[in-house]
Amino acid sequence: QLVVVAKSAANGMETLSEFLPNSMVHGIFSSCPQRDPFENEQFSYDDYEGYQQRRIHCLDVRDYQQLKGVWESEIKPMYGYPLKVVVNEGAHRSSWQMAMALFFWFPRLEPQGLFFLEGIQETTTFRKEFLPQLIRDIHWCGSPPLDLIEGSEEEANEEQPCFPTIHRLLKSFHCELHICVFERNNVVVSMEYDLAESTPPPNALNASLCPVYSTH
Question: Among 97, 78, 77, which Cα is nearest to 88's?
Fold first, then answer.
């Protein structure tokens, strides 16, 4: 399965469906298109059956409960079609939405799955505050033994990843211009992530709130 998260445009969903004809593509939009992106025919916002057939889900892409509802009812039950790719397009200046998409969908990807995030503008808080923390996390190998560091045990315990949820599942990530690709490792997630682990923590868009940044 492949999930496309966007504000409203359905072009990306149509393109990916054509490029990956054997994939089951879901479109998650904060506002639904007035035209069927596949047949280019007019249909009503109230035509829920039509949206369902196209696997178009209309909801607030920043809302955990709504995302969880689609995940549990439409995507997770498709056992023969694991979620391998998520494409978050059209976020552009919404730093919170980009962080929310990563925290919700990345843990739900199958091992070795890919999360694509496009439209990361240079001036966004996501680029200035979020990505530096993730770069620090990917180089974090664990707290050193107490006898090799100065300070108390309490200070040593502060040496933790800024984003533990993402860190434990992240193999690598690569950014070029305004696009980043996040690669899942081989860790199998056997539990369902709750609200706290599926949403950005307070430090997501403020690096100074991550203990490692505030103490160094």
Answer: 97
Look at residues 38, 39, 31, 41 and name the one whose alpha carbon lies nearest to residue 9. Answer: 31
- Residue 57 has φ and ψ, to the nearest 5°, of -115, 125
And the tokens for 162?
Answer: 């800024």
CA distance 185 to 167: 10
Per-residue pLDDT of 36-87, as tens digits, reads: 444 444 444 444 444 444 577 888 888 999 999 999 988 887 767 889 999 9
180 neighbors 173 (Cβ within 8 angstroms): yes
- The sign of the dihedral angle between the CA atoms of 49, 68, 81, 23 is positive
Beta bridge partners of 88: 5, 117
Token pair of 107 as six digits:
């843990």
Closest by CA position to 91, among listed 7, 194, 178, 211: 7
**Which one-letter amino acid corresponds to residue 142?**
G
As a residue count, the chain comes to 216
Backbone angles phi, psi at 203, to 5 degrees: -85, 0
Instruction: Look at residues 191, 177, 39, 170 and name the one whose alpha carbon lies nearest to residue 114.
Output: 170
Band of pLDDT at residue 10, cut at 50, 70 and 90: low
Tens-place pLDDT, residues 121-151: 888 899 999 999 999 998 877 655 444 445 5
**Helices (H) then strands (E): counts for the chain:** 10, 7
Sign of CA dihedral 37, 82, 197, 140: negative
